Amino acid sequence: MRILNTLSLLLISAKELLRINAERITFKVLTIEGTPILNLNDTHYPMDPVEGSYPLYQVTVDVQEFPAEYNYILDYGDNDTEQEEFVRQRDKDAPSLNEFFGRSVTIKEHPLLPRAYNEFPYLKKSKLYDDTFVASIFITCDEDEIGNLHEDTESREKIKAEVIYANPYTVRTFKNATLSISGASTRDMPKVSYKIKDLKDETTDKELFGRTNIKLRAEYTDASFMREKLYGDILNSVGAPTSQFTYSRLYINKEPIGLFVLSDNVESSRYLRYTYNNGNKYTVPSPFYMGGRDGDIFSDMTYYGDDPNLDEYKVYLYKGDEDITPDEYLERDIIPLLKEIDGIKSDNSDNLKLSIDTESFLKYMAVEFLGGGVDNFWTLPGNYYLFKDTDKNKWYFIDTDFHYTFGCSWEPEAMLNTPLSDFPPILEMDNTNKNRPLIDNLRGHPTYGKQFYEIMERLLKTAYHPNAIFPRIDSLAELIREDVYEDVLLKRQNKNADKSMGKAVDSEDFEKEITSEEEDGFRGGYPLRYFINNKARLTANELGLEIPNNFENNLGFYENTAFVKEANETNKNNKKDSSGNPLSLSRGIFSIFISFFITLMLF
Questions:
Q1: Domain boundaries, the chain
Q2: What percent of the chain has pLDDT over 90?
Q3: Is residue 248 within 8 Å of residue 137, measured between CB atoms?
Q4: For 468-520, what is the HEC assignment?
Q5: Is residue 565 within a helix (H) or strand (E), and if so which, with residue range?
Q6: In 63-139, which residue ranges form alpha helices assigned H by DSSP?
Q7: pLDDT tens digit string along 157-181?
Q8: Across-strand partners of 69?
């Protein structure tokens, strides 16, 4: 009997020691349906909703062995359950992330692009564009109102919506947001884009990481889901002030809508001040214009004289906050700017002073050429903005809409093979001339022409080098693959979509677009690698450059991984604080000592 008692005490002590030395670990998962259950070593732990953070659930349990292996189960009731088909792993020092049910990749750090130039000096980065994860946006709105938007996608109507933004680190709720259809030429596509505004918490007055307006871009024409993202990454690496891009999955009234590229709304005052003024409010009105198109008239920045009533000037649309007529803003802003641009060709001096930021403009044009931007200023004038920072007395050119790039199915051969000496190409469907006074006059100027050549050379040796871009493509693909595979199977929302859109994207198209180095791409376009490889080679040959075997990175790498950096730093501090765990160790030793002491007494 004494032996049995002794064994019982030793077993109890061993269990106590295991409990004392176990780590208390919190597991968190996002799901919009069912009640999640943590499955850890075949033991099931029901999870509780996190107050104020729907659709987030969590549970804290003791974990003895690491890496912990686990997954999640969803309980829908009536013995209806669904278990993840993969096993997750968790190290002892890993942060407790908000994982998403059914998605095996929560965060993934990517190979970074080398900086071609330093960052734009007035840029204040937003944590919203940390691209190491796919965020989730959950929208709740009136069923009839969202149905009407999808019935008439040409409508500019905004509807009220509650918006929940979730990423692996945080959940934010905005109860008084608005939702509308976004885009111009993409409104008749089966999968439409959206614009979300008024992202401001009514109690804390906080925005979504410095943004109140965002766009969710459908990328329906891009089988890779990556062209716009890569284009923005290259602009960041070259130091051009540009809109930012990352990924988000979207749900409306609990229905999955698909994977989207989350981007800035360039017309938002928050975007302008965070990009051009270090996040500070402007003290005086700043003129803001969109370069548009109207039939045969394009905003190519040609000066036609001082008459504001000319049709050629009507494509410059005022988007600022001032109460001002077209005649007034044309006479005050646009015509003087175009006249100044026209004057560049007659002044070859090194002391030429211009009110427009020529460096960022030339960077935009270099990326337009290398990236094959068929729907952008140099090829088809439009899809850009002109913004005047009145405090600095400086005009800025802002390029936008980069989904028709890198050999997409719109004139891929012309965009790949037209040399710089003959650029822009005349497109089959285009009725524009080839005059682009701003880029033409700058390239013809000895100082700015040399600068443009240097930008092109620098890009080819850094951020546009295939050895820099291709590993990033592979990594981004791993991040979004599961969401792409789901997206291509989803029902589309546009009830009156254009039936002539052609073949819809499938998973094979995605894989081919990101991996193939052959020329046969989606809808007659070129895959990413084919276009980038050949564009780099053709441009280097034309400019007489030799591309090095590996890219240059003497300025380091461009990154915007704020959450990952913070988490890593927190883990380091926690590890320092908990190393050795002397209290748990001493309690464990004391427990063993007592057990042996009792054992001796019994004998």
A1: 2-109+564-602, 278-446
A2: 80
A3: yes
A4: HHHHHHHHHHHHHHHHHHHHCCCCCCCCCCCCCCCCCCCHHHHHHHHHCCCCC
A5: helix 562-578
A6: none
A7: 999 999 999 999 999 999 999 999 9
A8: 89
196 to 157, 183, 215, 364: CA distances (angstroms):
12, 12, 6, 27
> CA neighbours within 13 Å on the CB side: how many for 434?
9
Q: Are strands 134-140 and 159-166 parallel, antiparallel or unpaired?
A: antiparallel
- The residues facing 290 across adjacent strands are 317, 385
> What would the two tokens of residue 189 be?
């596509």
Euclidean distance between CA atoms 163 and 158, whole angstroms: 14
Residue 332: exposure state from Cβ atoms within 10 A (0-12, 13-18, ≥19): middle
* Mean pLDDT in residue range 363-376: 97
pLDDT at 174: 96
* CA–CA separation, 97 and 89 (whole Å): 12
Residue 143 three-state SS: helix
Instruction: Flag whether pLDDT at 573 surpasses 80.
Output: no
| CA 40 to chain centroid | 33
What dotted CATH number matches 2-109+564-602? Answer: 2.60.40.10
Q: How confident is the model at residue 481 (pLDDT cuts 50, 70, 90)?
A: very high
Torsion 132-522-214-232 (CA) sign: positive
**114 close to 463: Cβ distance less than 8 angstroms:** yes
First to last CA, the chain: 11
